[in-house]
TrEMBL record:
<keyword id="KW-0238">DNA-binding</keyword>
<keyword id="KW-0229">DNA integration</keyword>
<dbReference type="InterPro" id="IPR013762">
    <property type="entry name" value="Integrase-like_cat_sf"/>
</dbReference>
<protein>
    <recommendedName>
        <fullName>Tyrosine recombinase XerC</fullName>
    </recommendedName>
</protein>
<dbReference type="GO" id="GO:0015074">
    <property type="term" value="P:DNA integration"/>
</dbReference>
<comment type="similarity">
    <text>Belongs to the 'phage' integrase family.</text>
</comment>
<dbReference type="GO" id="GO:0006310">
    <property type="term" value="P:DNA recombination"/>
</dbReference>
<dbReference type="GO" id="GO:0003677">
    <property type="term" value="F:DNA binding"/>
</dbReference>
<dbReference type="InterPro" id="IPR010998">
    <property type="entry name" value="Integrase_recombinase_N"/>
</dbReference>
<dbReference type="GO" id="GO:0051301">
    <property type="term" value="P:cell division"/>
</dbReference>
<keyword id="KW-0963">Cytoplasm</keyword>
<dbReference type="GO" id="GO:0005737">
    <property type="term" value="C:cytoplasm"/>
</dbReference>
<dbReference type="InterPro" id="IPR002104">
    <property type="entry name" value="Integrase_catalytic"/>
</dbReference>
<dbReference type="InterPro" id="IPR050090">
    <property type="entry name" value="Tyrosine_recombinase_XerCD"/>
</dbReference>
<dbReference type="InterPro" id="IPR004107">
    <property type="entry name" value="Integrase_SAM-like_N"/>
</dbReference>
<keyword id="KW-0132">Cell division</keyword>
<keyword id="KW-0233">DNA recombination</keyword>
């Protein structure tokens, strides 16, 4: 399996032009899954064939990720790594069926944006002094407040 992963990593680097950090994350995610599959199958990692990884085993991996209390975004990234790997294997005709086709990503958390209360916003807008730069800053703050512009968190 390591040879297939190495081939996939080369594909990500050379053909897909992924960044080094992205490639490193994909490789780490794949190795994490291999370690899980190896323990469940009681098979050395080197002897695992892609054909033995089925939907049941992948659901077990998903359950393991959730038991480890990983964030939903991390779980989604790990599944995306495996989804890309199996798509690569399927497109290169190295496997006959893609077991990831029926795997859904966990729903992402929807977080509300942080905001200032009315009194806090008023204090912020009124904070600049009466100098030309202060008036400019106040105009910018009023513009940002009036348009509802948010700072990404």
């Amino acid at each position: 399996m390591y040879i297939l992963i190495d081939h996939f990593i080369g594909y990500l680097k050379l053909q897909k032009n992924f960044s080094d950090r992205t490639v490193e994350a994909y490789q780490k995610d794949l190795f994490d899954g291999l370690d899980f599959f190896s323990s469940v199958l009681s098979t050395p990692v080197e002897q695992i064939e892609p054909s033995v990884i089925d939907g049941r085993l992948l659901r077990g991996f998903l359950a393991n990720l959730q038991q480890r209390k990983l964030s939903r975004a991390t779980v989604a990234r790990k599944l995306a790594s495996w989804r890309s790997f199996f798509r690569f294997l399927y497109n290169d005709r190295l496997i006959k069926a893609n077991p990831m086709l029926r795997m859904a990503n966990p729903k992402q958390e929807k977080r509300l944006p942080k905001f200032l209360h009315q009194e806090e916003a008023k204090q912020l807008v009124e904070a600049p002094d009466a100098t030309p730069l202060g008036l400019r800053d106040r105009a910018l703050l009023e513009f940002l407040y009036a348009t509802g512009t948010r700072y990404p968190s």
